[in-house]
Design a protein that fits this description.
It is a single chain. By secondary structure, the chain is of the alpha/beta class. An 8-stranded mixed beta sheet has the order 1-2-4-3-5-9-7-8, with helices on both faces. Strands 16, 17, 18, 19, 20 and 24 form a 6-stranded mixed beta sheet that branches. A 4-stranded mixed beta sheet has the order 13-12-11-14, with no helix packed on it. A hairpin with a 2-residue loop joins strand 22 and strand 23. The longest helix is centred in the first third of the chain and has 28 residues. The protein is elongated, with a radius of gyration of 26 Å. The N terminus is likely disordered.
Length: 488
């Protein structure tokens, strides 16, 4: 009899797995149908969400409530759907410069507002009531910064509760007494899955609720849901999942919400090759969150083994945007072999709607335990300083008429321009623009400086590094170059 029951259970489990696999595949393949088109860049603001929230306020499927106000007076809205007994609470953008999941939330709303996936949605909404608090920190989002208007990290305000945003989060959590909570963030794109070159595209944590890191039923349920979500992400970003260290942080909301009795799941959106605006990662959020909610509704997460959680690699932070390996560098008459790690740092434009890059060398020496989104083995190549083009160029239009790749091959990395447009903060050309009187400093490879140099092999310049972007001068392939610098 026991054998028969076990066999039936195995068949049922396999059927559920196949059913779930089909659901996640369908969610992924049909995503563009539900993607909210008005939110297509990371630098979104509260006024971008306002018309969407108002649309759902007028929709009988949804309940929209104003639950708080930011320091600068922007409303905080809770959007709910469903009639089930299990309350699931999702909040996003506690940090103003972490918008990926906010966008995914509105994609999820579009799905729930559509006639599609009728059976799955019915099962979710009959068993769960979903509550979304998107953009908890609208003042930070306005200027695309982590902290709120008071200058504090809301995620470290769970004890003092001095910020109105933190007070709102606590009040909503307590009023719902939510069974599950999804704490939605972005992390640095420079995290990698431990001991691999793969970025931690998504990282998870079931936060501890005490210093001992005990695992009770609530935390255990969060771990099981994370394992479920990890299995989904592996299908689309294999090996690109990390797990945060679970040291207890008594001031953090995630740790306290776990302690207050809500199974809390931290989701951090990191980096994905070529996905500067994190739109592929947004899609992964959409798919995995919806699938996780379905798992909560059907309770199929309960059969997952807890030990699978510990098998997810820990987060590490050993990624560069560009890594040059084994390059020869001459200093004071002697040759050295250097690895150079460079990151492209975003500088916001005035209205915080767009950005340009100002890159830096982050580290150099033996970087054999580090990785790059882009890596060049420069064995046999010599680092060579760039020169200033001897002719004075009248304007950007005149510069655009030049063959810049030929200039780079000839050793020039700087061009003097007479009339530099005042509105230009960075050079759109893969060469630095300098004013008539600007003096280029003495060349050094040094941590903290802008990475600009040439690579020479066999007497020929073959590659240029301009503002941390690698340009293969013997290839016509399109590069990921965005901008060089302007030095007036």
């Amino acid at each position: 009899m026991r054998v028969q029951i076990t066999a039936l259970f195995l068949i049922a489990s396999l059927f559920c797995s196949a059913q779930q696999k089909d659901l996640t595949t369908l969610l992924y393949d049909t995503y563009e149908t539900y993607k909210e088109p008005s939110l297509n860049k990371r630098r979104i603001k509260h006024f971008d969400l306002y018309p969407l929230i108002e649309k759902y306020r007028k929709n009988d499927k949804f309940k929209v409530s104003r639950v708080g106000t930011s320091i600068e007076g922007r409303p905080l809205s809770l959007i709910s759907i469903g009639q089930g007994e299990t309350d699931v609470f999702l909040w996003s953008q506690m940090h103003g410069d972490e918008p990926t999941a906010t966008q995914a939330i509105f994609d999820i709303f579009n799905l729930f507002n559509s006639p599609d996936f009728k059976a799955e949605k019915q099962e979710i909404l009959a068993n769960c009531t979903l509550h979304f608090l998107p953009m908890l920190n609208p003042d930070g989002a306005e200027v695309f910064r982590r902290r709120n208007r008071l200058g504090i990290d809301i995620n470290r305000d769970a004890l003092r509760l001095q910020s109105p945003e933190g007070q709102t989060l606590k009040r909503v959590r307590d009023s719902l007494d939510a069974d599950f909570g999804f704490n939605l963030h972005d992390q640095s794109t420079y995290y990698n899955a431990e001991r691999t070159e793969k970025p931690a595209t998504i990282s998870y944590l079931a936060p501890a609720y005490n210093y001992e890191k005990d695992i009770n039923e609530k935390r255990g349920n969060a771990m099981k849901v994370i394992v479920f979500m990890n299995n989904i992400i592996q299908k689309y970003a294999q090996g690109q999942v990390g797990r945060y260290n679970d040291d207890f942080e008594p001031r953090a909301f995630g740790d306290n919400i776990q302690k207050w009795g809500t199974s809390t799941i931290l989701i951090e959106s990191g980096g994905y090759l070529g996905d500067v605006e994190k739109q592929e990662i947004r899609k992964l959020n959409y798919v995995s969150i919806l699938a996780a909610i379905y798992s909560v509704a059907t309770e199929n997460y309960k059969e997952i083994a807890l030990e699978e959680y510990e098998k997810i690699p820990e987060n590490d932070r050993k990624l560069f945007d560009l890594k040059i390996e084994n390059a020869t560098y001459s200093l004071l008459g002697k040759d050295y072999i250097l690895d150079i790690g460079m990151n492209r740092l975003e500088v916001d434009k005035e209205e915080h709607k767009d950005f340009w890059y100002s890159s830096r060398i982050l580290d150099q020496g033996d970087l054999s335990t580090y990785y790059g989104y882009e890596t060049l083995d420069a064995t046999g190549y010599t680092i060579t300083p760039g020169k200033v083009y001897p002719d004075l160029v009248s304007s950007f239009s005149a510069l655009a008429a030049l063959d810049i790749k030929s200039l780079l091959k000839s050793g020039y990395t700087y061009v003097r321009v007479v009339n530099i447009p005042s509105e230009n903060l960075a050079s759109p050309f893969p060469i630095h623009v300098i004013g008539k009187k600007f003096e280029v400093p003495e060349f050094l490879v040094e941590v903290g400086i802008n990475p600009t140099f040439l690579l020479k092999k066999g007497g020929n310049i073959t590659h240029a590094v301009i503002n941390g972007f690698l340009i293969d001068l013997n290839s016509d392939k399109k590069t990921n170059f965005k901008n060089a610098m302007i030095y007036r």
